[in-house]
Amino acid sequence: MNGYLAILKMRMKTLLQYRTAAFAAVTTEFFWGLIMMMIYQAFFSSTTAKEPLSLSQSITFLWLGQALIQLLPWTIDKELEAQIKNGNVAYELVRPVDLYAIWFARALALRLIPTLMRCFPILILAGLFFGLEPPVSGQAGALFAISIILALFLSSAISTLVMVSLFWTISGEGIQRLLPNISLLLSGLMVPLPLFPHWLQPFLSIQPFRGVLDIPCRIYTGVIPIDTAFYFLGFQLAWICCFVWFGHKLMKKAARHFVIQGG
Amino acid sequence: MPLLSVELLSKSYKIPKHCKGFWKELAALFSRQYIVKKALDAISFKIKEGELVGYIGPNGAGKSTTVKILSGILVPDAGDVKMFGKTPWEHRIEIVRQIGVVFGQRTQLWWDLQVIESFELFKAIYSISEESYRHTLNILVDMLDLSELLHVPVRHLSLGQRMRCDLAASLLHSPKILFLDEPTIGLDAVNKLAVRDFIRHLNRQKNITVLLTTHDMDDIEALCNRVIVLNEGQIYFDGSLECLRNKILPERRLVVDLMDEHETIKNNHAKVVKQEGHRIWLSFDPAQIPAPVLIAQITAKHSVTDLFVENPPIEESIARLYSSYRNSSL
After folding, report:
1. Which residues from A are below 8 Å from B99, CB to CB?
2. How far apart are the C-alpha atoms of B250 and B252, rounded to whole Å?
3. What average pLDDT is seen over chain A?
4. A2-16, A149-163, A180-194, B172-186: least confidently modelled range
């Protein structure tokens, strides 16, 4: 266990070095948020029908998404991709540790550190001046915190599975193009999921990506009432188990047939 | 019981075949054809505790493949390996606790972090106790002269410095057996000697068993009492360096300095290999003519200022071995 924590720590330390990138990202995400906010305002002022989310709820969804964007499984671990490409992954295999667990620890760090470095300025600014509401209740706030932690694990499990798949594709190109679209759309970052058409809702409500953003946001804004929140936390947990189980299995399979070329 | 025994180990790689021409490439999208390349073809050897074995062969002979199988990274197609009585790819985690591996062309240190931080990571991964970590680290820092390097980010290290740190990293958990895959590749003379001395010390003083893969024949000559020569996936030779030399190149060299620059030596049993000014290199087979007899014959005929007998450089033996192998297989 110690070893995995150490890897998590090391990876966090490395990621903390990218402060300028974090600053640049905060600025971009903040301005993107402002633009989206204006679009929502225009959209809501021109509609007469009753929408499933109010304008202020939508804006809260929006800012939470902008603040937590790095929590989504939409990027791959560049360092690991390079290791797989150049064969340095051989060194990871001569350690007395479970490779899946190491990669999972790395994924946790990759999701957690950039999020921590970016979320607070955005949350504070948006909360003070741009319409981010506080959680509907103290209980909702606490459940939101639990849900975010589950989202972190779910996102890491998805990321790890994607990384394992690189053993077959080697180049991460294809997956790098697909992943942002899928995860940003299906998590509800682009447009909050409740605002999607009716006929899509059954599909949207069972797919795993909603667990990384949509569920925490709904708990925060009270769209999911507190008494049913536990069902949704269970939903997140179930998807975590699925991805971990499948990722672990796939890693075992990969270990049986992969080839480390050269040198 | 040997520490490591390898029996009839085979491994082949499937390489997708590239076809020329549009239609053939298109067809390859649906049914790919593979060329099967045998990397290892039923090799067997045993290594006892405390041995320092040189593992040599031309590029692509299967050396790295062997090391990867022994360290549990690759699964072979057939054959068996027992290390400490266990099979590496089945008990990977148990086995790797007791082995150290250095791939000369790669680094195991974290690029962006200080050397000492990588070391501390390994301490946690291998669950090394604080006390034994301090003890081992002090010895390693001392022997490999690392005190200046510990707090430098790895990306700032020179190749030689990096290699010394990599060696230290692979020994922090006090492995019983060490696989070194080209540890001196690309190093300058000073670093090469430092690395070599260190390996010798590990083997002689600490009784660590070492399997050393290298292209540097000086490494072999300086370190190894036993050599395994691999070629095209098969073991061509396994024995002492002395035997190898005798097997492929029984000849000795006699270097003679003559008084007269324009003179040359003619002898039925010795051949002139090279002549430079006063100095002449003769090659002879001691089985045909013992060195003292040859020397007596030459000194009787010529006025000699100096002479000595030497072994031909091992590079030549190996080069000859590889080329004879290639010719015989053609």
Report:
1. 94
2. 7
3. 89
4. A2-16
